[in-house]
Write a structure and sequence with these properties.
mainly alpha, Growth Hormone, Chain: A, 2 domains, 2 strands, about 70% helix
């Protein structure tokens, strides 16, 4: 059984102030870990599709869905494993192991062009391993939940989400900057590396991983407090196991939270997967333009998200976590509803370019590669819906981005803040692992779903189905509203 102890009895620090400072220093290392994990994912996301097209001609939009899903599938498998590990051993162990896997996988991604065949499958495998390393998100969330009091929890979770959003900003921004290296860049002969706008971001993510490992080893220490902020003995690696209590958590609330988190992550996975192909189809952007412009847009969404997190911290204190979550879902619904095609304007069809360039077959492959004007742009003729589905206007696209950039961060932080409060004082590694696995499952299915539906049926069907899913989440939250309360509130220890 975990017990309350004096800070002097369990720490080498002479004052409570020192203990608090060291506790928050370790929490900030977790913020930074979440930030670098986010950078490691987003730094390649806008260039993933053009990179696939460049190194393997057989890759199509459907395969892109599988590549994006591979990251989340790896994370889904790893999250419960790392979460369970963190319940019984020092958290530095699963963190260092996972970050090292992530680092190695990014190097693998940078060299995916080397094999003579099946390059797209090497991209797929590298992203799966990057995702497996990102399973440490469960460890990060469980640590922050266990190291903060109930009053500190929402603010700490919002700060962690803000760091994650900052990673979402910096990742695409770095990718956009590195896009000026160009598609061909230069070759580092002694390590047989092509350094270009596709490989440089992955290598930079690997360097960030090395910094993260050093911080975890040198700065992180174990800390745990109860709901009132009193220090309690860490049970992560003692023989006492999981804290025993006669008071049980509300399993319906736990399940509902997992379902809501699944839906929130599913719809965002759809959004981030479809952004590049959608913009290339609707606005006839080239590969380089799509990487640059979407990088700028996602960067803007990231800045917007940080402002949302600041507002969420204040709003949740005044009106509660559940109303903020409900409002976030309503805003996301509006964002996808706006994205539905309408009007008489149709997208530019790519086959027109191919027809006009029928003599290109007589030009050497080298000349093709050096002449960017020969890159086909517009909606591929293989997607038959391009011929009868109205184009999505740039104003629609940007308006949708703005709304989703408000709704998603609010839903994201409120989902796992509520979840951590529902779980109560027990070690949360395994449960946070399941929540992360739920989100990863959504990020696995979301890209596959949207790449298939979008390729075959077009944006009207894809976004209509997403609107229906968000509406279902709103109904579910409304039905379970009275059960989504903190563990200590449920048993009358504190007042909501």
């Amino acid at each position: 059984m975990s017990q309350l102890v004096d800070s002097e009895e369990t720490t080498p620090f002479s004052t409570a102030t020192n203990w608090i400072n060291y506790r928050w220093r370790s929490i900030r290392v977790m913020y930074f870990t979440m930030f670098l994990s986010s950078v490691g994912f987003t730094i390649v996301i806008t260039s993933l599709w053009p990179y696939l097209q460049k190194i393997d001609d057989s890759a199509n939009a459907s395969f892109l869905g599988w590549v994006v899903a591979a990251y989340s599938l790896g994370q889904m498998v790893a999250s419960p494993i790392f979460g369970l590990w963190s319940n019984y051993r020092p958290r530095r162990e699963p963190l260092v192991c996972s970050i090292f896997i992530n680092l190695s996988a990014n190097i693998y991604y940078a060299y995916a062009y080397l094999p003579k065949t099946n390059n797209k499958f090497h991209i797929l495998m590298s992203r799966a391993f990057v995702g497996f390393g990102a399973g440490n998100v469960a460890v990060v969330r469980s640590y922050v939940a266990g190291a903060t009091s109930l009053k500190e929890r929402t603010s700490a979770m919002a700060n962690m989400s803000a760091c994650q959003a900052l990673g979402f900003i910096l990742g695409p921004a770095l990718q956009a900057c590195l896009s000026f290296i160009g598609e061909y860049g230069f070759t580092v002969k002694f390590i047989d590396l092509q350094l270009n706008m596709y490989t440089a971001p992955a290598l930079l993510a690997a360097a960030f991983g090395l910094i993260n490992i050093l911080l975890v080893l040198l700065v992180l220490r174990e800390h745990r407090v109860d709901d009132h902020g009193r220090h309690i003995r860490s049970i992560n690696y003692t023989s006492e196991g999981i804290e025993e209590t006669e008071e049980t958590m509300d399993q319906v609330a736990v399940l509902t939270s997992n379902v809501l988190f699944f839906i929130v992550m599913f719809i965002f996975a759809v959004f981030e997967t479809i952004a590049t192909p959608l913009s290339m189809d609707m606005f006839a952007w080239t590969r380089k333009e799509a990487v640059l412009y979407n990088g700028i847009i996602i960067c803007g969404i990231g800045f917007e998200s940080i402002l949302v997190f600041l507002v969420v911290k204040v709003a949740s204190q005044r009106i509660g976590d559940r109303p903020v979550l409900l409002a976030g879902l309503a805003i996301i619904f509006c964002g996808f509803f706006i994205l539905l095609p309408w009007g008489n304007h149709y997208p530019k069809i790519q086959w027109a370019d191919l027809k006009n360039n029928s003599l290109v077959s007589q030009i050497s492959e080298a000349t093709k590669a050096s002449n960017n004007s020969l890159e086909p742009t517009g909606c591929p003729y293989e997607q038959t819906w391009c011929q009868y589905t109205p184009a999505i206007h740039l104003a629609q696209y940007i308006s949708s981005d703005i709304l989703i950039g408000v709704g998603y961060p609010a839903c994201n932080v409120m989902s796992y803040t509520l979840y951590s409060k529902i779980l109560g004082p027990r070690p949360q590694g395994v449960y946070m692992g399941w929540l992360t696995a739920s989100g990863s499952g959504a990020r696995t299915l979301g890209p596959v779903f949207v790449s298939q539906v979008y390729t075959i049926l077009g944006p009207r069907w894809a976004f209509s189905l997403i609107c229906s899913m968000v509406l279902g989440a709103i109904i579910l939250l409304s039905c379970a509203y009275h059960r989504l309360i903190a563990f200590s509130v449920r048993y009358g220890r504190t007042v909501e």
